[in-house]
Amino acid sequence: MITIQKANHEHIHGIAKVCIASYWATYGDLLSTKYIERMIQEFYTPERLLEEVMTTSRFWNGWIVAVEGGKVIGAGVGGMISENHGELFVLYANPDRRKEGIGSMILDAVTKELIEYGAKEQWVNVTKGNIKGIPFYEAKGFDFINEQDEYGVIEGEDFKALRYHRFLNDLHAGSIL
Where is the N-acetyltransferase domain (predicted)? Predict the structure, then answer.
């Protein structure tokens, strides 16, 4: 049975494992190896994840994990980016467990928290060409807004992110609980 819960220090290595495996599976053909390694080193080290798991606020809601048999099989996190706007910062499921609803369960949990903090709208960035993420978010009611530089690009890199948005009051209560 899959449980969705707030992450704690026991989930750190599982979050790292899922995020790193998913990052490579999702972006291996879209982004350079150097860029991927740089982002993994910035965001998915045990030290950073421990700090993030132990920190919760309106601007950083803390990691949510999907756990089955004591093992992390998905992870996500969001926060408020302004008074009425929430953002999904990260959402990954074990690449071998795609299409099982894990991402939807985590998205619902993160969204519910954002609504509790007052979010009326929700944002997410999706790497241009991400054929796994784009259909998922569009199916969840997110609409494309604009294209921008991907986070952390340096001179010589031309990776783009697509900015997506949805109004949370348009969602049916049952779809986010």
Answer: 2-169
